[in-house]
Design brief:
The protein has about 120 residues and is an all-beta fold. It contains no helices and 11 strands.
Length: about 120
Amino acid sequence: QVQLVESGGGLVQAGASLTLSCAASGRTFTILAMGWFRQAPGKEREFVGGIKWGAGDTYYADSVKGRFTISRDKAKVTVYLQMNGLKTEDTAVYYCAAMGWRIGALVKESEYDYWGRGTQVTVSS
């Protein structure tokens, strides 16, 4: 199995930047793709961005495109989410996820096999 641990969340003011990290451990050699999702109070969990582990191709939700950047360090088996120009509506618990059995659509949370516990990002005005 694969274990995922997110870090880097915190309280920031609108317009600030934050970088989230997600470190994978266990059977990391099986990882095919990783993604970031978020869930704000009273809302459903939504896709933020994803990356194919081998090729490094990325895909983003329209709501964050141009502001957020996903990247990975293959040696460290770690994925990052660089968040710039944060808005109050970005406030949410951010979750890291990984596909380990077969590759699927990055935007579909049902395609991911492993999930972290999340890290809180709070953006104040």
